[in-house]
Amino acid sequence: MSVRELVILGTASQVPTRHRNHNGYLLRWDGEGILFDPGEGTQRQMLRAGVAAHDLNRICVTHFHGDHSLGLAGVIQRINLDRVPHPVTAHYPESGRRFFDRLRYATAYRETVGITESPVSEDGVLATTPAYTLETHQLSHPVESYGYRLTEPDGRRMLPDRLAAHGIKGPDVGRIQREGTVDGVSLDDVSEVRRGQRFAFIMDTRLCAGVQVLAEGCDLLAIESTFLDEDEQLAVDHGHLTAGQAARVAQEAGVRHLVLTHFSQRYTEPEEFERQARAAGFEGELTVAHDLLRVPVPKRR
User: Phi and psi at residue 170, in whole multiples of 5°?
Assistant: First the structure.
């Protein structure tokens, strides 16, 4: 049975707190796992969440501030210790290659798994598989930062009433799906497009064009909301979003499920993030993230 969910390993910005670990997010997408922004302590959070090194197929780093990348050393060494049998690809800003190299080889260990490095230097598609297309867009932060978006290919939904009306049944159902037509009846006559699911991951950034492009039409959007709206000037100064800004982006983009995360240590009441997001007009499903939470990707419409 396929699983599509976001496992939240940590939700703190800048420094961990007693209740929030540094960042870390695992997207389970059918048989693959994509680890986003492994901050310090991610390896232990993986253990607590039941996530194994064998679950990882890709690592995506938005930028090289410590709360988004200091866990790389431990995660990469664990991949090698456990002798993960499949390829693991790492995406990160090309401008931070020296940081990735330092973290990858921070200490001595036996390298048993080849990590394929695929650094990012511009907007565009990073990978295309039968299950998804992974793309990236630049964000606005004091250091170069990229967000990530995963899009499932569109499929087809067969319509029983139309199949019956055209007399398509039994083996002919499979045949029309494979060949596109049976006895003059086309696939379009008996089915409709089933829109592929979409997920986006947006961390440290001000409002910018990249945020809008990444969020557009997402079924599930994980986005930073470091500050509350009363501290908007701090958000602008330090390259972050407020809860209200993130919610307005999601509402305008038609996001179905919004996950707010990456909270400043100055706030202790998560309910206020939800209140401000609703006040900003977001009407979809809303989650204020906490460590070790699992958020399923919404079912297809």
Answer: 55, -135
Half-sphere exposure of 294 (CA within 13 A, CB side): 10
The CA distances from residue 243 to 57, 194, 229, 266, 270, in Å, are 31, 32, 6, 14, 11
Tell me the DSSP string of 142-162: SS--EEEEEEPPPEEEE-HHH
CB count in 10 Å sphere of residue 153: 14
pLDDT along the chain (301 residues), means of 10: 91 94 97 97 97 98 98 98 97 98 97 96 97 98 98 92 91 91 90 94 98 98 98 97 98 98 94 97 98 96 79
Strands 185-186 and 124-128, sheet pairing: unpaired
- Enzyme catalytic residues: 67
**What's the pLDDT tens digit per position in 250-280?**
999 999 999 999 999 999 888 999 999 999 9
Rounded CA-CA distance 178/188 in Å is: 13
